[in-house]
Design a protein that fits this description.
Helices cover about 40% and strands about 25% of the residues. The protein is of the alpha/beta class. The chain starts with 12 loop residues before the first helix and ends with a strand. It binds S-adenosylmethionine.
């Protein structure tokens, strides 16, 4: 990924992100990984600020949360969303090269961003640099996103394979979650722990939120992925098959979030 945007950028992305964030028990994830009142925290790749606001509620007025994002529009939404929370501030910037001092934060959180970065170890090194000694670095991301479904027709299985490899070629790693423990250990973090939690479990027909989430993903990713399907037509057939599986009352669909945390020496 390069420049001032990322692969999933689209006009409807802010709403998709906000709905996704609201569907997850983020508060519990933050507490489990050590966020506490009074802390100075960083939300790296904060998007529209839904999680930044939850972080601010946890740290309270004695603490502070800085949200960083590349995208000016996302930051404007985040500022508006967090306006009632004076402990929140925002900075436009690249989390791979933060214009922040070393040893600053008690807690660094980054969710659903590392999957887009070609050099996750570099981003992690940057999180570690800005965390204070003894501070926690926490990365939450997908693992095999959207690929744990049954039954799968051979056509759909092949379509999923094409989809994943086209995204991989564009720099999006849908398997990044499982790689984080190793990266954390190699980066010298201590007390590295991994929490596995559902992103969704749909035994039967998916609700409209999940269906719309996938419709939006498919539309946004069309320019990147459709060449792998020989063009838009082939890609749209795959998308319809996948959405059909999501609506199938007899099919199981699940996906996980892997949250990896470690402590800076
Ligand atoms: C999928 S969203 C996740 C937003 C939020 N963390 C959440 O969980 O709802 C990814 C966000 O990361 C931002 N982003 C992507 N690459 C970035 C980078 N290198 N530096 C800063 N922000 C980045 C995007 O602009 C987008 O807002």
């Amino acid at each position: 990924m390069s420049g001032g945007s990322y692969l999933m950028e689209s006009e409807v992305e802010a709403r998709r992100l906000a709905e996704q964030a609201r569907a997850l028990p983020v508060h519990g994830h933050l507490l489990t990984t050590g966020l506490a009142p009074g802390m100075r925290a960083l939300d790296a790749g904060c998007g529209p600020g839904v999680i930044t606001a939850v972080m601010a509620e946890v740290v309270g007025r004695q603490g502070s949360v800085l949200g960083v994002d590349l995208n000016a529009q996302r930051l404007a939404e985040a500022r508006a969303h967090c306006a009632p929370l004076p402990q929140c501030s925002f900075l436009q910037g690249d989390l791979r090269k933060l214009e922040l001092e070393d040893n600053t934060f008690d807690y660094v959180w980054c969710q659903f961003v590392i999957e887009y970065l070609p050099d996750p170890a570099g981003a992690l090194a940057e999180f570690i640099r800005v965390a204070r000694p003894g501070g926690r670095v926490v990365v939450a991301d997908v693992d095999a996103l959207g690929l744990q479904n049954w039954p799968l027709s051979p056509e759909l299985e092949e379509g999923c394979r094409l989809f994943v490899s086209a995204l991989g070629a564009a720099g999006l790693d849908l398997y990044v979650g499982r790689k984080l423990f190793h990266l954390f250990r190699r980066a010298g973090l201590e007390a590295v722990r991994v929490h596995l939690t559902p992103l969704w479990v749909v035994a039967g027909a998916a609700d409209s939120r999940l269906i719309n989430d996938w419709k939006q993903r498919f539309t946004t990713l069309e320019p990147v992925v459709s060449p792998a399907f020989g063009g838009t037509l082939g890609y749209r057939v795959f998308c319809e098959q996948y959405l059909g599986l999501l609506s199938d009352p007899d099919a199981l669909k699940y996906s996980v979030l892997l949250i990896t945390e470690g402590q800076k020496r």
